[in-house]
Specification:
heterodimer, A: 197 residues, mainly beta, Jelly Rolls, 1 helix, 53% strand, B: 170 residues, 10-stranded antiparallel β-sheet, 4-stranded antiparallel β-sheet
Chain lengths: 197, 170
């Protein structure tokens, strides 16, 4: 893979040319600038399940997480939705969210709630469901836990949605679950930590 | 290995202006910026501006539009043309009600292109409020950094901004 700067200033923050020496690599590593900035925490195969849990999210290491869910299909129409865990216990109430749904056959819909039983959800579909979310302050016991997300689903029409969700409690979030109302036949969820210095 | 390269991490303790200087270069065309954990001294809108390579404000010729999504009421919007500032978020004044956002910035150092951007923010200000924003700085001068300010000169605190470049192979 071409990345490195032999003969030039060894800095991973510039274009990717040349070859890193061992010394340069060690120096960049010490600065937190070596390598990519999406650090995979866990990948989960969602197939044949209605719930999969990220139970070790390293909330004490990362203050921003990136969650992806891709290619979820179900045998009959259902939603995929996200919930959070506090001290290993799933929260099933108290979520706030607001997002805009744009569909190829019906226009625009505002979706919002205060005190719902999930953080955010997909559209009702057999799939495929695809979305990502940036997750903030899950490990901060003094702040509310926030996410912003965007998704794109297919069910004979294109459905796109984007917005935010929040758990208005000053608590540490130590887990994330990917749920569906029907068994997920296919799908993959990945959780990343976004690198910080 | 992902293609995002961490360039800069800047932390704000407490100030009315939060500058992130000299983070954009000609080495990358596309940047991601995460802004995490910002508090304001009172309920306030939060704005972004642009800095040139000298760290000076480029305070004209900005167009933007923001969709304001609320968890308890009808959504709203804000937009302007040829303005000096982009509203991309709100922030509650209580400690727990912090704001976070992510940005994509396109071609900031390309002197033959406008600087374009997308952002999405989320915060709690009595109600959960998420903003989706598009903006363009309609000047072809190079943009090297960003400035964050809050409405009515509210003090901002505890924020961390991280800038990443999208890897270019050349």
């Amino acid at each position: 893979m071409p990345y490195g700067y032999l003969g030039t200033q060894p800095n991973q923050t510039v274009k990717n040319t040349g070859v890193l020496s061992v010394t340069e690599a060690a120096e960049l590593q010490s600065q937190g600038k070596l390598g990519g900035s999406l650090e995979l925490i866990e990948e989960i195969d969602l197939s044949s399940s209605t719930k999969s849990i990220f139970s070790s999210i390293y909330e004490d290491v990362y203050d921003v997480h990136f969650l992806t869910v891709e290619n979820v299909t179900m045998s009959s129409q259902a939603k995929v939705y996200i919930r959070l865990y506090e001290s290993g216990v799933e929260k099933s109430s108290g979520y706030h969210y607001a997002n805009l749904l744009i569909e190829s056959d019906s226009g625009v819909t505002e979706r919002k709630a205060t005190g719902d039983n999930f953080l955010f959800d997909s559209t009702t579909t057999t799939g495929a469901v695809n979305f990502y979310a940036y997750c903030y302050q899950f490990g901060n016991s003094a702040k509310y836990s926030l996410v912003s997300y965007q998704g794109s689903d297919w069910d004979g029409k294109s459905s796109n949605y984007f917005g935010g969700g929040l758990l208005p409690q000053t608590s540490v979030v130590d887990g994330i679950s990917v749920n569906a109302n029907q068994t997920m036949q296919t799908g993959t969820a990945k959780l990343y930590g976004i690198k910080q210095i | 290995m992902s293609n995002l390269r961490l360039i800069n991490e800047t932390e704000l303790s407490s100030a009315t202006i939060f500058d992130i200087t000299d983070v954009f270069t000609t080495d990358f065309d596309i940047y991601q910026v995460t802004l995490n954990n910002m508090n304001t001294s009172a309920d306030a809108g939060v704005y972004i501006q642009f800095l040139n390579t000298s760290g000076s404000l480029v305070a004209t010729n900005i167009d933007y539009a923001t969709l304001e999504m609320y968890s308890n009421t009808t959504f709203g919007s804000t937009n302007a043309t040829n303005t000096s500032i982009v509203k991309f978020a709100t922030c509650g004044g209580a400690t727990a009600e912090s704001m976070s956002a992510e940005f994509w910035i396109f071609n900031p150092m390309n002197s033959s292109s406008y600087t374009f951007g997308l952002s999405q923010s989320n915060a709690f200000e009595n109600v959960m409020e998420s903003h989706k924003t598009i903006f363009v700085q309609k000047q072809t001068q190079q943009i090297a950094g960003l400035r964050f300010v809050a409405q009515s000169s509210a003090t901002m605190s505890s924020a961390i901004a991280r800038t990443y470049g999208l890897r270019v192979d050349s």
